[in-house]
Amino acid sequence: MKQFLFLLLLVLLANTAHAQYGGPRVFLDLPTIYVSAPDVQKVGNLLGAGAETALNVGSHWCVGRIGGGAVFSLDPKSEDVGSSFLTTPYALMEFGVGKYRSNGNQCAKTHQSAFTAMAKGGLRYNFEKDATNPLDYSVGAEFGYFFIRDMFKNYEVFTSGNYLVKGKTFGVNFGFKLFLNLKAKRNY
Q1: How far apart are CA 153 and CA 137, in angstroms?
Q2: Which of 169, 183, 162 minimizes the C-alpha distance to 92?
Q3: What is the pLDDT of residue 187?
Q4: In terms of residue numbers, what domain contains 104?
Q5: N or C, which end of the chain is more exposed by having fewer CB within 10 Å?
Q6: DSSP-derived 3-state class of residue 64
Q7: Which helix (H) or strand (E) covers residue 2, if one does?
């Protein structure tokens, strides 16, 4: 565990140093709204929606993310659907490598498309009171697309797959993110 945290810290420091070369990119995802299948093996019995907020610091090729949110799920096949409702709040810390909210012009202009295609991994803490493994490792991938209308505020459509190592579950999310580019110069 100590080795993993040391390695994660080292990677985040390297990412920060790399981002300084062209200046770090800082995004606030506020909010991220998505439909969720928290465990694809139980997709018929466990469906939901989620909301998340995250702060992202990175470059066009990698990102560090810290945030939190909640997944609201239920069993649609249950005789008493109301009693199957479950709220799962969580906190996350992730690191991703790949194309991150970028394009060939590195998003230097408005009125063009950009995308995300990256592998990611990190830690996820589940605040659910009955959680057997509250702290879990996650690995996965994220894909997104957006059209640059404004250098400060944009919407991204995304899909994300995450495998929780201790929980041995694979989940899929699909939704949109409103994100703010905190380093953009605004024209008021």
Answers
A1: 31
A2: 162
A3: 65
A4: 2-181
A5: C
A6: strand
A7: helix 2-22
